[in-house]
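Narrative of accomplishments. A recurring question from our advisory board has been how the design workflow behaves on a single, concrete structure rather than in aggregate. To address it, we present the structure tokens for one chain from the evaluation set, followed by the sequence designed for it. No filtering or post-editing was applied between the two.
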């Protein structure tokens, strides 16, 4: 292949990739808007998760991970369990975190929905931090500087950023592709962004100490190894099924139940975890039981001058808050 055709094929690929990202981003945006209507007092979280996941699939895309609905002190990694009875409370903060992929190209965004007026400022803090971080994000930027911006915006409002959660580089079928975008100015020295990279930026703000710990509940898993299990044909078949459905992206226990049948799911999860074929994502709870807000968008550093916000969660919040 001569260089001209090679360059042409790269350019075409880039356009195709960009198109996939844009489509994924648009579905996330629409799903977050739909979430605004679905999140209301006493609504079952299970119903919200399934409606949003159904919307994603009906839009011709796939969830990149189960819809996360994390309420109040729970910062992240909660999706409805099978027959979950949790409902939306009357007061507090509901964080809806949605990931969508088109052919493996992922957009990941989150919106905090304040219930009542008690935590508007806490959500504003995460929103302000995300707006400022997106504005500051450029190619060849030390990622630590984004953490400085996020921390400054959140502490300015009298809250703490959650220091052990971070934004992340995204790659095809890979939600956390190595580099992190910190939520404080500490750590990650000398890590720099590059042109063409895709990042999820996700500031978390809290009125607690600013750290999450793992809770006991685990409803999200992912395949961590494709190695064959010796002398367990059934386990190997299930691993194959999981790989062909979800690759190594996170999946819900609910989804596995649909794939292999409700009656087996607990036993299979225990077995696969024992084989180290899957790993769980325990819910993440603020260590001092502080209230937690989060805002997240996925952006592409298209060039030095152009950053594309694929998911525009900040626009949804702005409309909600200042209409
Ligand atoms: Mn997310
Ligand atoms: Mn994320």
């Amino acid at each position: 292949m001569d260089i001209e055709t090679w360059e042409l094929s790269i350019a075409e690929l880039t356009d195709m990739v960009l198109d996939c990202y844009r489509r994924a981003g648009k579905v996330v945006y629409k799903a977050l808007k739909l979430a605004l209507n679905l999140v209301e007092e006493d609504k079952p979280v299970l119903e919200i998760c399934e409606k949003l996941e159904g919307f994603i699939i009906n839009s011709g895309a796939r969830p990149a991970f189960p819809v996360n609905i994390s309420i109040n002190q729970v910062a992240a990694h909660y999706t409805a369990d099978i027959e979950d009875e949790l409902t939306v409370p009357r007061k507090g903060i509901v964080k809806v975190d949605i990931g969508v992929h088109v052919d493996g190209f992922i957009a990941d965004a989150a919106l905090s929905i304040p219930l009542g007026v008690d935590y508007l400022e806490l959500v504003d803090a995460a929103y302000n931090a995300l707006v400022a971080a997106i504005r500051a994000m450029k190619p060849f930027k030390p990622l630590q500087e984004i953490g400085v911006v996020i921390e400054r915006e959140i502490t300015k409002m009298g809250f703490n950023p959650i220091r052990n959660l971070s934004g992340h580089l995204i790659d095809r079928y890979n939600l956390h592709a190595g580099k992190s975008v910190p939520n404080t100015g500490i750590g990650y020295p000398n890590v720099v962004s590059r042109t063409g990279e895709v990042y999820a930026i996700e500031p978390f703000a809290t009125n607690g100490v600013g750290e999450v710990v793992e809770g006991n509940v685990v409803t999200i898993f992912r395949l961590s190894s494709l190695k064959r299990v010796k002398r367990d044909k059934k386990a190997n078949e299930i691993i194959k099924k999981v790989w062909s459905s979800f690759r190594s992206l996170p999946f819900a226990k609910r989804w596995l139940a649909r794939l292999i049948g409700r009656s087996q799911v607990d036993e299979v999860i225990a077995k696969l975890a024992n084989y180290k074929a899957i790993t769980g994502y325990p819910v993440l709870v603020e260590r001092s039981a502080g209230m937690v807000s989060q805002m997240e968008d996925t952006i592409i550093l298209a060039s030095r001058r152009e950053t594309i916000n694929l998911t525009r969660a900040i626009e949804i919040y702005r409309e909600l808050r200042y209409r």
